């Protein structure tokens, strides 16, 4: 593809400030500012070259992805599955063919592992009653992607939305497997609110869970305040006991 950036052309790259470098090339010593300026100039030029090369690769990736999706559709193994099914049908008898069609053997199992290419043909989710569009390389939509036993990218949300006699009922919405904690976006916000509420009940006035780790001086000040409160309470109890003793002595 044509390269949109002139700095990443096939020819030799012209260094910025080459005339100035040539004038200083015969110098035995360079000042600190001259060295810093030369390094800064070359670093900026190198960063620009890397940036242009990165975006050129991104454009090439988009083009290749578009060509791949247009040629193979949602699964690159559909043709292999069809060829394998045809070869097995030629080698097996009629009873074997019926058994293979019944259990779906001989497929690579890309689309949920069931050997059914209806999802690829219609573009709809393979779940009964769902009319949503299937995701790429699978027969299920995003809501039902966990029904695909072969997928490795998603897991279920483990937020307990209700409690029952058999145990807590979890949310179960699909989220990325790398998500920590294992909550969807809605329940992650609820968990943050619950966390802030519990922290306020325990005496920590924190408005956001992103600042759960206060600085050392905040912790020291809080502990000093608690210690002083306990000392004042102990002194108040001691004064009250002394007053009661004095009153008893004055009233024989």
UniProtKB/TrEMBL annotation:
Q: Which GO terms describe its biological process?
A: chromatin organization
InterPro entries found in the cross-reference section: NSL2, Znf_KANL2-like
Is Magnesium a UniProt keyword of this protein?
no
Please indicate which superkingdom the organism of origin belongs to.
Eukaryota
* Pfam families, per the entry: zf-C3HC3H_KANSL2
Keywords linked to the UniProt accession: Chromatin regulator, Isopeptide bond, Mitochondrion, Nucleus, Phosphoprotein, Ubl conjugation
As given in the record, the signal peptide range reads: none
In this protein, which residues make up the domain named KANL2-like probable zinc-finger? 125-188
Query: Tell me, how does this one assemble?
Result: Component of the NSL complex at least composed of KAT8/MOF, KANSL1, KANSL2, KANSL3, MCRS1, PHF20, OGT1/OGT, WDR5 and HCFC1.
Q: Report the protein's function.
A: Non-catalytic component of the NSL histone acetyltransferase complex, a multiprotein complex that mediates histone H4 acetylation at 'Lys-5'- and 'Lys-8' (H4K5ac and H4K8ac) at transcription start sites and promotes transcription initiation. Required for NSL complex stability and for transcription of intraciliary transport genes in both ciliated and non-ciliated cells by regulating histone H4 acetylation at 'Lys-5'- and 'Lys-12' (H4K5ac and H4K12ac). This is necessary for cilium assembly in ciliated cells and for organization of the microtubule cytoskeleton in non-ciliated cells.
Tell me the protein's name. KAT8 regulatory NSL complex subunit 2
Q: Which species does the entry assign this protein to?
A: Salvia divinorum (Maria pastora)
């Amino acid at each position: 593809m044509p390269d949109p950036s002139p700095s990443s052309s096939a020819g030799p790259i012209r260094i910025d400030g080459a005339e100035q470098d040539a004038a200083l090339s015969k110098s035995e010593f360079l000042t600190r500012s001259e060295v810093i300026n030369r390094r800064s100039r070359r670093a900026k030029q190198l960063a620009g070259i890397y940036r242009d090369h990165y975006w050129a690769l991104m454009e090439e990736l988009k083009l290749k992805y578009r060509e791949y999706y247009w040629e193979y559709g949602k699964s690159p193994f559909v043709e292999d599955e069809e060829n394998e099914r045809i070869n097995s049908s030629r080698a097996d008898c009629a009873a074997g063919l019926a058994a293979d069609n019944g259990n779906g053997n001989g497929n690579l199992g890309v689309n949920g592992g069931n050997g059914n290419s209806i999802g690829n043909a219609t573009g709809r989710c393979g779940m009964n009653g769902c009319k949503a569009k299937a995701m790429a390389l699978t027969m299920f939509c995003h809501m039902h992607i966990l029904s695909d036993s072969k997928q490795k990218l998603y897991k279920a949300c483990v937020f307990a939305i209700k409690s029952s006699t058999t145990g807590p009922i979890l949310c179960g919405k699909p989220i990325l497997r790398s998500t920590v904690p294992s909550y969807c976006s809605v329940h992650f916000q609820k968990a943050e609110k619950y966390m802030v509420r519990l922290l306020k009940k325990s005496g920590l006035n924190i408005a956001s869970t992103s600042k759960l780790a206060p600085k050392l001086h905040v912790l020291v000040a809080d502990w000093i305040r608690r210690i002083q409160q306990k000392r004042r309470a102990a002194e108040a109890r001691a004064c009250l006991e002394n007053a009661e003793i004095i009153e008893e002595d004055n009233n024989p």
